[in-house]
Amino acid sequence: MIKKLSTLLCSFIVLYGCASKKVIEGYPQVTNQSKELRIAQVKKINQWKINGKIAFLQGKKRESASLFWQFNQDEQKQTLKLTTYLGINVLSLTSEQGLHSVEVDGETYQGSNLEQLIYSLTEITLPTQALHFWLKGLEFSSDDQIKYDDITGLPKKLTSFHHGQNWQVNYGKYQQVNDVILAHQFSIKQNNLTIKITINKWKL
Predict the structure, then answer these.
(1) Domain of residue 182, residue span
(2) Distance, CA of 183 to CA of 115 (rounded, Å)
(3) Is residue 123 part of a domain?
(4) Per-residue pLDDT tens for 139-159?
């Protein structure tokens, strides 16, 4: 997987630096929405779909791919696909009712612990369960803490002690999706691992 993804990093960095120009016009005007109201709105989002880019930077390793991720909390289903810019499948994940199936290099593997399964196959730490909440700017556990922007009132940084590791999520490029304002750019750090996500499109 590393060989397949590493060649995409340079192009991804360009995309990451220039992505998402459709930032809300009059962005400071969104400050009239209270933090409590936004949290209540976001907590109601139980189904979402995202398309974008993801990159993993760890030590000398540089890996990136196109990202498709669909999640349905009510039905406990999700689909996650990482592909090259030519559309070649690098990793494909499906989850249903706690059973996870991951396809890598034409081989399929199954397990009940998704994070361990992904790491055993790719040596990549991907806190998938927590990310269901973090991408929306919500705490995953009581240990999570969110710092809000003084001007916009939107999540600026989240810190978490997740599975014995310290994580930090930085948010940027907010846009309005339906009636909710969501981040479209993320920098997720844990020790020497950085995961960068740029979302081109949210669908709720």
Answers:
(1) 2-18+34-203
(2) 24
(3) yes
(4) 999 889 999 998 888 999 999
